[in-house]
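EI: anyone free to look at a 299-residue chain?
SC: sure, send it
EI:
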Amino acid sequence: MSYAIEVESLRFRAGSFELKDVDLHVPTGSIYGFLGPNGSGKTTTMRLVLGLLRPLAGRIAVLGHAMPEDGPRVLARVGYVPEQPHLDSTLTVREIITFQAAFYPTWHRAVAEDLLRRFELDERRLFARLSKGQKAKLMILLALAQRGELLVLDEPTDGLDPVVRRDILAALLEYVSLRKATIFISSHLVHELERFCDWVAVMDDGRVVTEVPMERLKQGTKRLIVSGAPPSERTGETPFVVLSRERANGATERWIVGEWEPEMTAYFEGVGASLVDVIDLDLEDGFVELLRSFRAARG
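SC: here you go
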């Protein structure tokens, strides 16, 4: 498998915040969701990937080139939407588009004009006078018109109304379909990424909690109702990951597990327990349980 982004043993410190041995592998052609609560380190990681910050240690490769050493060569092939708009507030929408186009030999004028129309942006309006949703649409327009092989999007729909989010996500999906590009998109909105991401990584407190295909995370996280459970799951080595367990009624316990497969029910017979029920969890429940388990283990 080839990777658009490879991060290995990445370390970074800013004040009291620290990234600790971060590993990420973003497959080429995938839509890769980067999940985590605010302040977990997603934006810092993205800035390191793009060479906007320098790591203390570790390896970063983007589109097959080392970062930040090959930054100019790489960034010419990357569309980036930062968390906060960074455009000149005194320019009009048309002036910003014209200015941006001058820096990219791959700039596609027809794409820019089509998105300008579809997003219903007034080309004469000053950037400072745009609403939050209009600013987000313009940032996406600029990233897509560059025709990059990789899009790095930092919370691109945070705080936007459902209609604007739908328009932006539809444009992104169309772009990936036509260009076979890779999208690396961060969010703290679990339900938003659930619908269209192929892969997902979860970050908390500067560490990567997990990195798995989206379907594996969705289908493999379950709530088990267990009767006669052993005092500790270490009584027998579990073929799944135990995220949490708590007493329910009498001798019954509720277990939250990851990486579950149907044939793993045999484990409970082997330790003298009985599996009463297997309950599906949605991605948000699984995300919360992953964070809870990670924090409990560290605490």
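EI: The chain is about 30% helix and 30% strand.
SC: 👍
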